[in-house]
């Protein structure tokens, strides 16, 4: 149960850091951590399909967002 609380706290903390980070690159990295923590929470709740879709769709979208941030 402690692992669940660790990843829940990690998701909340990284979500807060996404909106408080001044550097857009750091914000994107915090967003990746937030989505990865949420995916781990889904895996712990035994909905692996949702977790994998979450990782593929959202982390893939963040990779594209990261490319746009670098190109600007």
Describe what you observe in this structure.
By secondary structure, the chain is an all-alpha fold. It has a single domain (2-71), classed as NADH-ubiquinone/plastoquinone oxidoreductase chain 6, subunit NuoJ (Four Helix Bundle (Hemerythrin (Met), subunit A), Up-down Bundle). It is 89% helix and 0% strand. It is built from 3 helices and no strands. The protein has helices at 2-20, 24-44, 48-71. Helix 2 (24-44) runs antiparallel to helix 3 (48-71). The N and C termini lie far apart (43 Å). The model has no long low-confidence stretch (mean pLDDT 90).
Instruction: Return residue spans where pLDDT drops below 50 for at least 5 consecutive residues.
Output: none
CATH class: Mainly Alpha
Architecture per CATH nomenclature, i.e. the level-2 architecture: Up-down Bundle
| Distance separating the two termini | 43 Å
Number of separate domains? 1
Going by CATH, the homologous superfamily would be NADH-ubiquinone/plastoquinone oxidoreductase chain 6, subunit NuoJ
Question: Compute the gyration radius: what is it?
Answer: 13 Å
Helix content: over 70%
Major sheet size, sense and barrel closure: none
Q: Could you tell me the CATH topology label.
A: Four Helix Bundle (Hemerythrin (Met), subunit A)
Shape: flat
The proportion of residues in beta strands is under 5%
Average pLDDT figure? 90
Q: How large is the count of helical segments?
A: 3
Structural class: mainly alpha
Write the layout of secondary structure elements.
Layout: H1 2-20, H2 24-44, H3 48-71
Attribute tags:
Four Helix Bundle (Hemerythrin (Met), subunit A); single chain; flat; 3 helices; 72 residues; mainly alpha
